[in-house]
Every structure is written in structure tokens, then in C-alpha cells.
Amino acid sequence: MIRILCLCIGYVFGLFQTSYIIGKKNGIDIRDYGSGNAGTTNMMRTLGRKAGILTFAGDCLKCILAVVLVRLVFAEKYADIMPLLVYYTSAGVILGHNFPFYLGFRGGKGIAATAGLVLSFDPIMAVLGIITFFGTLFLTHYVSLGSLLVYVGIMIELITMGQLGCFHMTQGHLIELYLVGFCLAALAFWKHRENIKRLLSGTERKTYLSKQKPEI
């Protein structure tokens, strides 16, 4: 029951669609422009760098706030499985972000929310994630590739740290944690399936942070 509750809490926070709100304030539905994705990259390409940064910050923050709430409410009673509950909460946020019921289940891809997950989960994972994403972006200029490699890194780090005893949970709970992590990674790859096709064909659009201009 506590796991379902954490998922629900996360989902409610995930329903705060930053890009949709900013888009509406600018007279558009961001899902009708560019890639049609309600996320940071499409906002940056469509409305400019400032809109993209605000979108990333909002989507990242909603995951952090959801985790903070769960820690405050359940830390004492469920201290032995708190890392697992953090993951369930973050999974809920990502699901709410990707599939908002009030927008016809058309949301984003959950990468900024995932950034909130790693920032609130473990500082080592956060630093490695930042290095992986921006290193890939600066070398290739592919946001999608950087995002996917971050998820690969998260899974490797999650299992490594778990088996080293960093999370102080039983093996059964660790396996459950890995499974939740794997499901989130699988979802990210599925949401990026078109990007993967374009990466393989060499037609994926590149992003240059220093030359970003609005298209409308």
C-alpha cells in the first residue's frame, strides 16, 4: 500500500506540466509545435532558451518536491526502505509528466523529472549524470543520446551502489529497486524510440545551446 501511495503522490506532482503552462502563457500549445513533445528541448527550440530553462527547472523541481514530501511524511516509519520509496515516488512523477490524464495522456518524456530523481536520490549519481549528459551533448549535440546514456549510467550506478551496501536495504528490496529502475529506463527508451531511429539513420536533429533561437 505504501508503494501505491508514493506512486500516487508522485503522479499528482507530475501533473504540473511546466511546458504546457509556459506555452499557454505565450498563446500556444507546445504539443502542436516542433517535435510535439511537452519537454525542455522542444520548448527551447520553439520559444527560446529562457523558456527551455524554466521548463527544465519546473519539471526537475516537481520531482524533488514530491520526494521531499515523502521523506518528511514517511522517513521515520519506513526508514529501512526509503531509497525504494523515493524511486516509487519519482516513478509516479515521471508517469504524471509523461501521461497527464487531463491532457489526453500526452506529456513529455520524463528526462527533466529524472534529473530531479537523481538530484534527490544520491549526490554521486547526480554528479555522474550531469557529466554524462553534458559531456555527450557537447561532443555530439544530441540531447536524446545524452538522455539515454544517463539512464544507462543510472542503472549501472544503482546496481553497483546497491550491491556495495550504500542503500542499507535487504537483497529483496534491492532487487525491487533495480526492477523499478529498469522499468523507468525501459520507459525512457520507449519514449525515445523515434529519436533512436533517427540517431541510427543519422537524421536526428542536433541542439546547439549557444545558438538557440525561437521558431515562432
**Quaternary structure annotation:** single chain
Low-confidence stretches: 212-216
- Mean of all residue-level pLDDT scores: 92
Number of domains: 1
Order of helices and strands: HHHHHHHHHH
- The count of DSSP E runs of length 2 or more, i.e. the number of strands, is 0
Describe it for me?
- By secondary structure, this protein is mainly alpha-helical.
- It has one domain (2-211).
- It is built from 10 helices and no strands.
- Helix 3 runs antiparallel to helix 4 (49-74), helix 5 (82-98) packs antiparallel against helix 6 (111-121) and helix 6 runs antiparallel to helix 7 (123-140).
- The longest helix has 26 residues, at 49-74.
- It is globular and about 45 Å long.
List keywords for this structure.
216 residues; mainly alpha; 10 helices; globular
Write the layout of secondary structure elements.
Blueprint: H1 2-14, H2 18-25, H3 40-47, H4 49-74, H5 82-98, H6 111-121, H7 123-140, H8 143-163, H9 171-191, H10 193-201
